[in-house]
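Key result, reporting period 2: structure in, sequence out.
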């Protein structure tokens, strides 16, 4: 499980870097005026755009939770096998729950 989580941490870091390009595109569309923003909105509101946004949400939360796990390790805590496994599951399940919660709030709030 440890190798898988390490690879996932790196992959989510790459996904976040790619997501920063999408964030820049959105910010530039805001500065570009109504037509530019409408184009960006349509791209992000498309099924593929929503899938990418959900993926970036998961990447953000997993990278955050797994980063906290690494901070505990840097402090010398959580190296026992059971603790490593529990914190790994916390990072994965926590990221899934946080992603679903975020999208439930966004969807229910009528923002999408």
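The corresponding designed sequence is given below.
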């Amino acid at each position: 499980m440890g190798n898988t989580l390490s690879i996932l941490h790196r992959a989510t870091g790459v996904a976040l870097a790619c997501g920063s390009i999408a964030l820049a595109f959105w910010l530039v569309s805001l500065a570009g005026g109504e037509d530019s923003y409408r184009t960006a909105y349509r791209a992000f509101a498309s099924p593929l755009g929503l899938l990418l946004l959900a993926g970036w949400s998961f990447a953000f939360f997993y990278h955050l939770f797994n980063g906290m796990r690494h901070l505990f390790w840097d402090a010398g805590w959580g190296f026992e096998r059971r603790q490593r496994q529990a914190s790994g599951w916390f990072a994965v399940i926590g990221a899934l729950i946080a992603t679903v919660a975020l999208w439930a709030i966004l969807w229910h709030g009528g923002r999408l």
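The chain is about 90% helix and 0% strand. The helical segments are 2-32, 34-45, 47-74, 81-108. This case is discussed further under Risks and Mitigation.
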